[in-house]
């Protein structure tokens, strides 16, 4: 069978599936991605390049679609090259969040097409208008947001089926498409992600943290409001004051993955650190940039409590990975987190907007970690039962109508480093400054 993957950041969510299919001598697997795409063994990768352009003259409602149309054009060039060489796919799996899947049905009308349905934008009940610190969208903002779904809907109409990683993410899509979308997570490597009672983590400067020390971790691709960084920082002074031996390790970049940009010349990291810096013992607060995956895992193996906060938005792999490692997780009481964590069973949930409640829960765990150890044990059981990569791959293969075999261990997801989401990309657009809206991205221009 000839199989084509389309994802600008390939392999991204398709790493496990593409790797599994590429190991079979019965398949030829080809992938198309942008210049950020990465090779994996057995997959022929073709990259396209987006030329410089400026959409400032395009109507604001159509700017996102303008960008996606330009990306679709680059895909057409690559597909023409493939077809000229005799490659006609039987199956295409693509992410519909960038416009790359727009030309697939017209170009390969007989192929089975599955699109990855990650998120459907809405003005209420999700990330937009969730944080009271953000101003409200006007009518023009709401219309612009609706228009961001245009290419996604066109691709979903053309597709034979859709794949969503969680039930909540599927539910963001219009109900008339629910029967077309199947839920299957990418999965985490339960064999690789094993708790370790002797784990340790060396900080820059040589200090070594050990399993059993009082350690609080917070990890995000970038330190920004969408992932609750501001709430965590406001809780941190109380946590460290109550636990004088505790250390906080915070991993994340200074850029923006999701939401609006901060004031020019500043980062969300510095803004919220400055807000509480006078209340913190900074010798016990350790900021690290995005780490290699093995370092990310080492840190989670040592932590006493891992904090994961998010708006109602896509669920991060890092939370499921933390659960698989047996971490005691305190997560935000928001829909994507509630789908994975049952409060008091395999983790604790806390109101997103309440730093006092967050501090109280984290402090209790630090004071008596043995009393909460069973939450970590149960978290690992949940992760293996619902998100183990081998099981998820078998399910995906079944949904796609492919024969499955027990997969070999595949490299993990990139954890916190590589861009995976439709909001995690850059282009030469004008970026709206200020926290105008949590769902604004670098495509939200004007």
UniProtKB/TrEMBL annotation:
Chain coiled-coil ranges: none
Keywords: Transferase
InterPro entries referenced in this protein's UniProt entry, alphabetically: Glyco_trans_1, Glyco_trans_4
SUPFAM superfamilies: UDP-Glycosyltransferase/glycogen phosphorylase
Region described as Disordered: spans on this chain: 401-446
Record-level GO BP terms: lipopolysaccharide biosynthetic process
Ranges where the Glycosyl transferase family domain occurs: 26-190, 210-381
Gene3D superfamilies reported for this sequence: Glycogen Phosphorylase B (3.40.50.2000)
Keyword Transferase (UniProt): yes
Name assigned to this protein: Glycosyl transferase family 1
Organism for this UniProt entry: Rhodoblastus sphagnicola
Taxonomic lineage: Bacteria, Pseudomonadati, Pseudomonadota, Alphaproteobacteria, Hyphomicrobiales
């Amino acid at each position: 069978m000839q199989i084509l993957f389309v994802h600008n950041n390939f392999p991204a969510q398709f790493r496990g599936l593409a790797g599994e299919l590429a190991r079979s001598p019965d398949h030829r697997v080809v992938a198309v991605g942008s210049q950020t795409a990465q090779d994996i063994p057995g997959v022929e990768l073709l990259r396209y390049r987006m030329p410089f352009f400026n959409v400032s003259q395009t109507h604001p409602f159509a700017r996102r679609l303008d960008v996606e149309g330009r990306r679709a054009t680059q895909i057409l060039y690559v597909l023409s090259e493939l077809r000229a060489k005799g490659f006609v796919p039987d199956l295409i799996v693509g992410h519909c969040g960038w416009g790359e899947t727009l030309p697939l049905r017209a170009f390969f009308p007989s192929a089975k097409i599955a699109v990855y349905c990650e998120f459907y934008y809405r003005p209420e009940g999700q990330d937009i208008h969730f944080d009271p610190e953000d101003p409200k969208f006007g009518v023009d903002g709401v219309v612009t947001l609706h228009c961001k779904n245009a290419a996604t809907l066109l691709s979903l109409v053309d597709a034979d089926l859709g794949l969503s990683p969680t039930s909540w993410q599927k539910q963001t899509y219009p109900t008339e498409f629910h029967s077309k979308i199947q839920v299957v997570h990418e999965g985490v490597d339960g064999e690789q992600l094993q708790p370790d009672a002797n784990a340790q983590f060396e900080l820059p400067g040589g200090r070594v943290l050990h399993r059993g020390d009082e350690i609080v971790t917070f990890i995000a691709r970038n330190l920004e409001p969408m992932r609750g960084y501001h709430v965590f920082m406001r809780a941190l002074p109380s946590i460290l004051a109550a636990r004088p031996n505790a250390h906080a390790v915070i991993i994340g970049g200074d850029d923006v993955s999701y939401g609006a940009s901060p004031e020019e010349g500043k980062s969300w990291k510095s803004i919220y650190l400055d807000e509480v810096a006078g209340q913190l013992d900074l010798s016990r607060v350790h900021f690290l940039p995005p780490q290699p995956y093995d370092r990310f895992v080492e840190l989670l193996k040592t932590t006493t409590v891992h904090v994961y906060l998010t708006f109602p938005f896509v669920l991060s792999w890092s939370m499921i990975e933390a659960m698989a490692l047996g971490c005691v997780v305190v997560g935000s009481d928001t829909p994507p987190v509630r789908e994975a964590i049952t409060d008091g069973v395999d983790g604790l949930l806390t109101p997103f907007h309440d730093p006092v409640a967050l501090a109280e829960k984290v402090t209790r765990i630090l004071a008596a970690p043995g009393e909460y150890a069973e939450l970590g044990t149960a978290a690992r059981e949940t992760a293996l039962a619902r998100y183990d990569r081998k099981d998820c791959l078998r399910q995906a293969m079944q949904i796609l109508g492919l024969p499955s075999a027990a997969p070999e261990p595949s490299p993990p997801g990139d954890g916190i480093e590589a861009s995976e989401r439709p909001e995690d990309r850059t282009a030469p657009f004008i970026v709206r400054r200020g926290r105008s809206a949590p769902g604004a991205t670098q495509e939200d221009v004007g």
